[in-house]
Request: fold
Amino acid sequence: TQDNAEQQGAGENKPPDESTDDKVSKSDISLLQKLLHSKLVHNKADLEVLRKDPTSPLHSVKSFEALHLKPQLLKGVYDMGFNAPSKIQETALPVLLADPPCNMIAQSQSGTGKTAAFVLTMLSRADSSKPYPQCLCLAPTYELALQIGQVTSEMSKHMEGLQITYAVRGERVARGEKLNSHIIIGTPGTVVDWAFKFRSFDIRLIRVFVLDEADVMISLQGHQDQSYRLQRGLSADCQMLLFSATYDSSVMEFAGKIIPNDPVIIKLRREEESLDNIKQYYIECNSQQEKFEALSNIYSAISIGQSMIFCATRKMASWLAEKMTGEGHAVGLLSGELPIEMRADIIKRFRDGKEKVLITTNVSARGIDVEQVTVVVNFDLPLTLDHKPDCETYLHRIGRTGRFGKNGIAINFVDGHRSMNTLRFIEKHFGRQISKLDADDLDAIE
Ligand code: ADP
Reply:
């Protein structure tokens, strides 16, 4: 499949023993985040708004009532437990629902309320008395399309007669059959077929076009061109919207082509992670076994709330998980070969406190945030694919955002020259001391 091709390409230069665990594509990370975000991720960073057209509306709303939604839609929103708009929704929704409609490009990290915002927009504009598709939403993968569909069904549950169709692999329409549902949610390839080959709907009648997860979309071969093709089929007065979790120059370029006409651009930066509230230590060991023994000492000597342990390879992670389990610890093992749903379950169990220790590799932990973790152990220090110290990953494993700025402890294992050099490099890079800890005398840890 395209996904596999992509992963193989990405793995060309990686060290041999990581190879078995490098199967995480952008779409996997995205889906994992969707499965994990059962509530909003709060973000205090500043919202940035750019608009070329000064007449486009710009104000923020503090309540859903202020948006004058159809009563059945408002009821659906409240039934989902949404009391007030999220930070990005406060500013995005008035623009999204304005008349005449405005185009928008919006970027913010996963979990900040983008999906809810565009689903609300589609539902608010769809007229269920007209028996043809009026809203079209593109997602990069089958699974991501289904996630959006679930939100749409739930939010529209009081809107009688409103129908959604999935245009994804496995769903078929007969040639010449005309769709009479109101919202189509699908992946680019299938939607292209339905629009141009089977003519199952008239793309010129689409009133709201949404492209979600633009950054994932461009990472998948073929999706970009298919998206352009669909976009070109839209009528000029169709509302065009694009959403993304990240916003680098390749996403920007794509976004500019998908939404060419005066979009309002909204960006919500990720809250910065910092090492300010973290005490960092290192322990010197001579072997893997010695590392385990030191770790075991730590767990018996100090009371640790939730902790995560990072290993370089899947093999190391499962070895350690077995050893720790043997010592009576309740550990979860997060491994890259598991299906995403199972990975999400393991992370949820850990978040719920069912296991206090989560052992993981770099790769399978990508994209997850567990706020209540207070101790992070680098059983192996993070390295980039070409074996250089990976400071960014170090910060992401250990760092805290301002909001969750509780104190934390990081313990790094060093075994030999190279890892000592890595540690020194990281220490210098951040300008924060990493203190030596004696595995047999842990009094230094506070
Ligand atoms: P994103 O698309 O940016 O990843 P979502 O729209 O999926 O974010 O929202 C993340 C989580 O927060 C979901 O579980 C969603 O149901 C919930 N959510 C979204 N908007 C609100 C809101 N205004 N109030 C409460 N919860 C919300």
